[in-house]
Fold:
Amino acid sequence: MFTTALAQNNLTQTAEPPLDLFAAIQALKQELNAVILAHYYQEPDIQDIADYIGDSLGLSKTAANTNADVIVFAGVHFMAETAKILNPNKLVLLPDLAAGCSLADSCPPKAFAAFKAAHPNHLVISYINCTAEIKAMSDIICTSSNAVHIVSQIPKNQPIIFAPDRNLGKYVMEQTGRDLVLWQGSCIVHETFSEKKLVQLKIEYPDAQTIAHPECEPGILAHANYIGSTTALLKYCQQSSASAFIVATESGIIHQMQKETPHKRFIPAPPMNTCACNECPYMRLNTLEKLYWAMKNRTPEIKLSEQMRLAALQPIQRMLEMSV
Ligand code: 13P
Ligand code: SF4
Structure:
């Protein structure tokens, strides 16, 4: 598959892009009857041209209901793959097929099958940040915005495996009082924040509220005034009377926060090193230019076998039925 991905991406390197990419993308959108769906972690230009920006749950719901013929997915592979699982007859384009996810990579199907076999009679609830293979081995999918709600609907005597994110899993255990068997996966971006530097920043900005995504480590979450999915964090910032926020999640979301409440201040939570590690290297593989070429060439597209699609569809449908 990777060879195909490279071959497909090479198409993007043979010609000059138009000068006005925004206008060219708008024209292609009409021509293809396409919808552009983007995650909050995409670069600002992509967020600005998207028809819909959202968190993983919002994006899945929008993908499930779109009338467009083509879905241009500005996010990472598992997100575009979910859109394809829900829309087998639509063309689903991902600007860069190499846009993966460290969390999805941290749960290889063979090892997960052995983990499942070692825990018979367990219900498998998997975070949407996983491959179609892992989804196919799961009973229910969840996202960061509905994980607590979904786990709390399961009868108390039913043992549960929660995969692949150990930090979200620990957070759900705390919120529900349930004992979950956790797969030990994690996200490189959300594990990059330094608790020591965060405490120093809180002292520097005593009036700022700290907000965090539940993929962060417990030491970071312990300092948060509010914990939620990307959409929930955005809503919190809109509704809160605070005028400054320390944001412990991927820094791309600050573009949307700043747009919605320009008078408020958003400070990225500090990573351990002097790097841009709070930018997801996978999400940032997509660029406006690659998005243009994907639409122009109708590639790279997401493909998966019908057998795998049907197996992965069931737990996603269960999630959509169980979500509010
Ligand atoms: P959301 O569910 O908030 O969209 O999170 C997705 C994600 O990849 C976080 O790293
Ligand atoms: Fe995956 Fe982390 Fe990037 Fe989200 S931020 S897509 S979990 S690597």
